[in-house]
Structure formats: structure tokens, C-alpha cells
């Protein structure tokens, strides 16, 4: 079975961006964009005000032990690289997580309309209250997955930082994790609308991991760019819906 394609995956975000410009989808992106603007102002201000101070404090906290002198510059480099990447990931992902929790029902409706536009079919009908409870609950499930798995990824990254040559793969590992997280986040709305369990959804997405990485990479990059991230998230919902529909067997949406 094919594991997907990086370029095809990235193109799903482009297709999603083109799709949400259609008049029939505008109602479902106005509120999320307004929420995005408010969150963007708060998170961007916090990041620029505190990042350099936090890195300086962490480097300054390295003990002045004699046996550490030979490793001090390496440790400082590891801290700087990890801190910079973690800050970018936290900024991009915090932006999307907070937005997704607050705007989850709107994104759920957007994914439903995109699915109907592409396939002509709609997920099982439910009330607005039921969809709100379901989508917010699913966001919390995803949040726990990202926290628990992300902790292990960063532990592994820290260990790699002390291994010669392996240090160069550290940013790659972190980037792939961030891309995978974004792919899960935004292609899950369609799966959730069709009442597909989270574990089953992840296993299905893993079968098309390269498409997922291609899509998630572009979403992650867009989510870390100020102003761009305001508009990229609704496009990611549409693109993730397209990815899930195009890449998964029909039986998964049955």
C-alpha cells in the first residue's frame, strides 16, 4: 500500500485555501478568523517579550562545575536550539490549540460542508449542542495525545543533542513531529464528524504518512508566521478534510 506523497500532501492545503474562498464557506470561517486575530495579538506579544529572557536565564543556570567546562558551550548550544524550536512549536501549536478549542464547532461545520462539497454526502446529522460537545471533547483527546507523545519526543531530542552527528538530525525529528501533529489536528475533523475513533483515525492516517507530513509541514510553517497564521487554520481544516477523503478507503467514511 502506498504511503502517500509529500507534494500531494502539501497541495491539499493549497486546495483547502482555494476552496474556502467560495461564498458558501465564508460563514464558517468569519468567527474563527476573528478568534484567530485576538489570540494572535496575545500570543505574539508574549513570545516577543519573554523568549530571549528565558533562554538567557536557562543558559546562565548552567553550573560552573569544573568537569562541565568542556561541555558548557555544547550544552548552551543545545539549550538555544531546543528553546528556539520549542518556542516556535509552542507558538504555532498554542495558537492552533487555543483557536481549535474555541472554534471547534465552527471547524466541525466547515469540515462537514467541505465533505458535502467534495463527495455529495454529509456525515450523520446531529444537533448543534451535540456537535459542540463532541468536537470540544475530541480536542481534549487530541491535546492529551500531543502532550504525552510530545514529551517523549522532546526527551529523545534532548538525548540526541549529546550524540555527535546525531545532533544534526535533532531539528528534523522535531519538525517531523510538529508536521505529524498538524496533520492529525486538521484532518481529524472529517474523521470525527463521521464518528471514527481517534485511534482508528491515527492508524489510517499513518498509512499515508508522507501525505500527512507534506500537508502538516506546510500547515506548521504557516501557523508560525505572524498574520499568515490567522488565515491558514481555516484553510488547514478544509485541506485536512480533503486529505482524509482523498487518501482513505471509502470504507473508512462509511
UniProtKB/TrEMBL annotation:
Transmembrane segments: 27-51, 71-93, 151-179, 218-245
Keywords: Amino-acid biosynthesis, Cell inner membrane, Cell membrane, Cysteine biosynthesis, Membrane, Sulfate transport, Transmembrane, Transmembrane helix, Transport
Record-given protein name: Sulfate transporter CysZ
Membrane topology label: Multi-pass membrane protein
Lineage: superkingdom: Bacteria
Listed Pfam families: EI24
Native organism: Sessilibacter corallicola
This protein's record includes keyword Amino-acid biosynthesis: yes
Location relative to the cell: Membrane
Main subcellular location of this protein, as a coarse class: membrane
Amino acid at each position: 500500500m502506498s504511503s502517500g506523497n509529500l507534494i500531494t500532501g502539501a497541495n491539499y492545503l493549497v486546495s483547502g485555501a482555494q476552496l474556502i474562498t467560495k461564498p458558501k464557506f465564508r460563514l464558517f470561517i468569519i468567527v474563527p478568523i476573528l478568534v484567530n486575530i485576538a489570540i494572535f495579538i496575545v500570543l505574539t506579544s508574549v513570545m516577543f517579550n519573554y523568549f530571549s529572557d528565558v533562554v538567557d536565564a536557562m543558559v546562565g543556570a548552567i553550573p560552573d562545575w569544573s568537569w562541565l567546562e568542556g561541555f558548557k558551550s555544547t550544552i548552551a548550544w543545545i539549550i538555544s536550539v531546543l528553546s528556539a524550536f520549542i518556542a516556535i512549536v509552542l507558538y504555532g501549536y498554542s495558537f492552533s490549540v487555543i483557536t481549535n478549542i474555541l472554534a471547534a464547532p465552527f471547524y466541525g461545520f466547515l469540515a462537514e460542508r467541505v465533505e458535502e462539497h467534495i463527495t455529495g454526502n454529509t456525515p450523520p446529522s446531529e444537533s448543534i449542542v451535540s456537535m459542540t460537545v463532541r468536537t470540544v471533547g475530541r480536542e481534549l483527546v487530541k491535546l492529551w495525545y500531543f502532550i504525552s507523545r510530545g514529551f517523549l519526543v522532546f526527551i529523545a531530542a534532548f538525548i540526541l543533542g549529546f550524540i555527535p552527528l546525531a545532533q544534526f538530525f535533532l531539528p528534523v525529528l522535531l519538525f517531523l513531529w510538529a508536521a505529524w501533529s498538524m496533520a492529525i489536528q486538521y484532518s481529524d475533523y472529517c474523521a470525527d464528524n463521521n464518528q471514527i475513533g481517534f485511534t482508528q483515525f491515527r492508524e489510517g492516517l499513518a498509512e499515508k504518512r508522507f501525505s500527512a507530513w507534506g500537508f502538516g509541514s506546510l500547515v506548521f510553517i504557516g501557523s508560525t508566521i505572524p498574520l499568515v497564521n490567522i488565515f491558514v487554520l481555516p484553510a488547514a481544516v478544509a485541506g485536512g478534510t480533503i486529505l482524509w477523503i482523498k487518501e482513505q478507503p471509502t470504507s473508512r467514511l462509511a
